[in-house]
Design a protein that fits this description.
Blueprint: E1 4-8, H1 12-24, E2 28-32, H2 35-43, E3 49-53, H3 61-71, E4 77-81, H4 86-95, E5 99-102, H5 107-130, E6 139-142, E7 145-148, E8 153-156, E9 159-160, H6 165-176, E10 182-183, H7 184-192, H8 200-214, E11 223-226, E12 230-233
Parallel strand pairs: 1-2, 1-3, 3-4, 4-5
Antiparallel strand pairs: 6-7, 7-8, 8-9, 10-12, 11-12
Length: 236
């Protein structure tokens, strides 16, 4: 069964363009012309990924995203914005968006981004399903950090911490080689899929969020910035 994509944008031309390309790629599509319709469509169920315009009438994209994340922290959400400005992008990522596109965009790139985010989601679902087969879970540990790759769960000191799919992939990469320095491009490719030039701000925001989740009192305890290069998991 094909995945269903929610397209929420008040511009009919944008919705129809995305619908045409997504349906040609084998996806099913649900459309919404404003934030209220978007929330209604999401709550009706069956949505696998959301494409959300930020400046929608009635309920803006930021508020829609907040509501979605309250009930589903894992569904991929890609923001569509008409403003190529860092504050817009950073706020969306901080609220839990997985990716973003700036208008005008190439519809083929939009399809590629949808596929990339869904691949990550399905890979996590597959691992979750494998955890119920009775086989031993694959777990990475580093100090008091533990990442269960089979169940896609992360804990610190035995306490579970909710991470997004991109954050889980980034932590997997860092924990596999503690002390190794990864560039922003490598981190972006790991978290969001390759094929695009890394957005420095999206990586910085994601690392900042990860640090706050790992240790709110000492955000720099685990992940260290290597100025001019990238990041590494601090050696014990």
């Amino acid at each position: 069964m094909s995945d269903t994509i929610l397209i929420a944008d008040d511009e009919k031309e944008i919705r129809e363009l995305l619908r045409l390309y997504l349906e040609n790629a084998g996806f099913q599509v649900v459309q919404a012309a404003d934030g209220e319709q978007a929330l209604a469509a999401f709550r009706a169920g069956g949505i696998d990924l959301c494409l959300l315009d930020i400046m929608m009438p009635k309920v803006n994209g930021y508020e829609v995203l907040k509501k979605i994340r309250e009930s589903d922290p894992m569904i991929p959400v890609i923001f569509i914005t008409a403003k190529d400005q860092d504050p817009e992008k950073i706020l969306g990522l901080e609220l839990g968006a997985d990716d973003y596109m700036v208008k005008p965009f190439n519809p083929l790139e939009a399809v590629a981004r949808v596929k990339s985010n869904l691949r990550q989601l399905h890979a996590m679902e597959k691992k979750d399903g494998e955890s119920n087969t009775g086989e031993k879970d694959e777990v990475l540990t580093y100090g008091d950090l533990s990442l269960n790759l089979t169940q896609c769960t992360f804990t610190r000191g035995g306490e579970e911490i909710a991470l997004t799919s991109a954050e889980l992939k980034i932590m997997e990469m860092l924990m596999e080689h503690p002390g190794r320095v990864y560039t922003k491009q490598q981190i972006y490719d790991c978290g969001w899929g390759g094929g695009y030039e890394a957005s420095e701000n999206s990586v910085m925001v994601s690392i900042s969020k990860l640090r706050a989740k790992l240790d709110p009192d000492d955000p720099n305890r685990y992940i260290r910035t290597i100025r001019g290069i990238g990041y590494r998991l601090e050696k014990k």
